[in-house]
Amino acid sequence: MLRHMLHTGILSILFAMVAVLLCVGCMAKKTEKEDVRDSIASINIDRFDVLQHSYVMNCDYSALQQMSLTYPTETRTLIEDVLQIGKATDMSINADLLQFYQDTTLAQLAHDAEVAYEDMSDVEHNLRTAFTTLHQMLPQLPLPSFYAQIGALQQSIIVNDTRIGISLEKYLGTDYPLYMRYYSPSQRAMMTRQHIVADCLSFYLLSRYGLNAFDMRQQWERDVYIAKIQWVANRCMEKPVFDSAYLKRVDKYMRRHRHTKIEQLLKDDNLQEIQEMRT
């Protein structure tokens, strides 16, 4: 009888321990999901551009100090990689940055960008929606953070690990006068407010799922690779922001291979197979 009671007691303790462990596991999963939800909900666009504009347009040295203290990486990236006007540590770099934007065309561009993007709440909302979908497709992919800047028409999107910079001067609309002089209609079609989120998705995916020896590849290989990235971006946007003959081939490939996961599509060396998908 005593042995039976002891046996029963041990089993009860074991069941209780298993129940606790399962409960802890559920709580951990729940906490992880809540963390992701909170991260997505807190997605916003840091307004580095406002400080930048205040310094280069108004010679506001307090804005320059805040740029250096609050956004050191963004400031260095702007100076060294975007504008390419020197090193962030150069003794004269502050004056050089100020001088760079004294150009009349750039000054107007910066002013128009700040007016057009005084409020970016709609872009932030669309980023949350699109990156929620991206996380559902690729849960292992870190969620990025975002900031706005004013460049000089070099790059639209800058990706530094999980930090994404949006160059506002590249998204002033198809009919923006300066664009009409230097860009083709097909290029201008992508230089709109509505294209920002799709570009953030595309450039982030490009940074995470690179094509080996990209510069050595044939043009059709590059086209298929880009089309795969854009196909995923379209899925996240839930509309055909991008369109091309190669993108249609990717779509046909995925319809034929319905069990293919998104990560598998992006990682697999399936360029030749997609190339042979005639639309």
Q: What can you see in these coordinates?
A:
This protein is globular. Residues 2-6 have low confidence and may be disordered. By secondary structure, the chain is mainly alpha-helical. The chain has 14 helices and four strands. Helix content is 63%, strand content 6%.
Helical content class:
55-70%
Mean pLDDT: 89
Shape: globular
Please report the total strand number as a whole number. Answer: 4
Order of helices and strands: HEHHHHHHEEEHHHHHHH
Strand order of the largest sheet: 1-2-4-3
Main sheet summary: 4 strands, mixed
- Fraction of residues in β-strands: 5-15%
Radius of gyration: 25 Å
Report the span from N to C terminus. 78 Å
Counting H and I runs of at least 4 residues, what is the number of helices? 14
Structural class: mainly alpha
Uncertain segments are 2-6
